[in-house]
Amino acid sequence: MKFRAMVLEAFKEPLRMREFEIGRLPEGSVLVRTLASGVCGSDVHIARGEDPRTPVPIILGHEGVGEVIEVAGEKRDVNGESIRPGDHVIWNRGIVCRKCYWCTVAKQPHLCPNRKVYGINMSCRDYPYLLGCYSEAVVLLPEVEVLKLSQDIDPATVVIASCSGATAMNALDSLTEPLAGKTVVVQGVGPLGIFIAVAVKSMGASRVVVIGGSPERLSVAKEFVDVSLNRRELSEEERRKKVLEITHNRGADIVIEAAGDSQALLEGLNLLRRGGTYLVAGVAVPQQPIPFSVYESLVFKGVTLQGVWVSDTRHLIQAVNLVASHPVVFEKLVTHRFRLEQVNEALQHVEEKKALKAVICFE
Ligand SMILES: [Zn+2]
Ligand SMILES: [Zn+2]
To answer: 4: closest CA among 16, 12, 14?
Structure first.
């Protein structure tokens, strides 16, 4: 069988269409026909060579939903159900070693130093090549944790669960107190920020404030958040005033960075109440250091500061459940649909923040 895929052969160059021939599959692996492939904000950085993990050549794309074409031998999903041709599936984009300290003792498999990720650090140089989602088909290796999906869920809508959605759920998983009654500020209104906003609202947060710079994205968020603040229209001081106004002058209980910019920490810590929690969920590639006053912003305020790195299979399952219970909201996030040959255009739309969520769709 032959499949086409968009390959990054050199950093900062357009992706090129290539064809791959798939013969015998490794025992226990699953060949899926791609139904939807999400264009993640980090793909823009990866294509420029800013992610230190990425080799070339590589088929980019780490968010995918597919329909099973073939199973080599037997494979069950994480619920123990047998996987068969025709099934719709989503999978954990990362493969961990199950042997290291983080996998076995700390039980934090997403921090496994040997983690391999589809479309990020698995090259298409060697067979079975199809290890990224900007492709007509993907080979899910035997170690991949797969989840069967209901055929009623739109693949283009649920594909967000595989990266942004799962990372959002990992961020919230690190909170030690319930969200009920809390005021949460989300910095950034990309797919990650909006996913977090919907999730915290559904988990009982009393007020959700989003801060963003794109009017198109803010107008989508407006429908389900309590306060949306445009950082191009309001100064940092004005934004802080708005947050203080609705929190009896205390500041937010939780602030979550989902802007992908380390600079956001400086404002975010300022919006937090004493004893609050700050989660850094959006920074995905190395960036310039920021000046940061440890005494005023962290110690004196008694703040909990938490970095969030990727996600695990349970976060994927939580994200799929959230999408399934809010299909109308998440459908609205998919503002742009492209064909496989238009991937470069899709990446440009994401880079210029014209698209909220861009998805590659296949016939
Ligand atoms: Zn991603
Ligand atoms: Zn490991």
So the answer is: 16
| Interatomic CA distance for residues 323 and 147, integer angstroms | 14
DSSP string of 116-158? EETTTT--SSSTT---SSSBSEEEE-TT--EEEE-TTS-HHHH
| CA 104 to ligand 2 center in whole angstroms | 7
> Mean pLDDT lowest for which of 199-208, 217-226, 328-337?
217-226
Ligand nearest to the backbone CA of 312? 2
103 CA to middle of ligand 2, Å? 4
Q: Could you give all domains of the chain from N- to C-terminal order, each with its CATH number?
A: 2-165+311-361 (3.90.180.10), 175-307 (3.40.50.720)
DSSP helix, strand, coil percent of the chain (3-state; round to 5): 30, 25, 45
b/e per residue 262-298 (b: at least 16 CB within 10 A) = bebbebbbbbbbeebbbbbbbbbbeeeeeeeeeeebb
pLDDT for 3: 98
176-213 CB burial, b ≥16 within 10 A, e <16: eeebeebbbbbbbbbbbbbbbbbbbbeeebebbbbbbe
For residue 206, report the distance from its CA to the centre of ligand 2, in Å. Answer: 38
DSSP state of 166: H
Rounded CA-CA distance 354/356 in Å is: 7
Residue 16 Cα to ligand 1 middle (Å): 21
pLDDT in tens, 18-58: 999 999 999 999 999 999 999 999 999 999 999 999 999 99
Return the biggest CA–CA distance within the chain: 65
pLDDT at position 363 over 80: no
Compute the distance between CA of residue 331 and CA of residue 262 in angstroms, rounded to an integer. Answer: 29
Q: Measured at the alpha carbon of residue 261, what is the angle toward residues 304 and 324, in degrees to the nearest 5?
A: 80
Closest CA to 90 of 300, 318, 248, 277: 318
pTM for the predicted model, two decimal places: 0.95
Let me know: does 27 contact 72? Beta carbons within 8 Å.
yes
CA of 285 to the centre of ligand 2 (A): 21
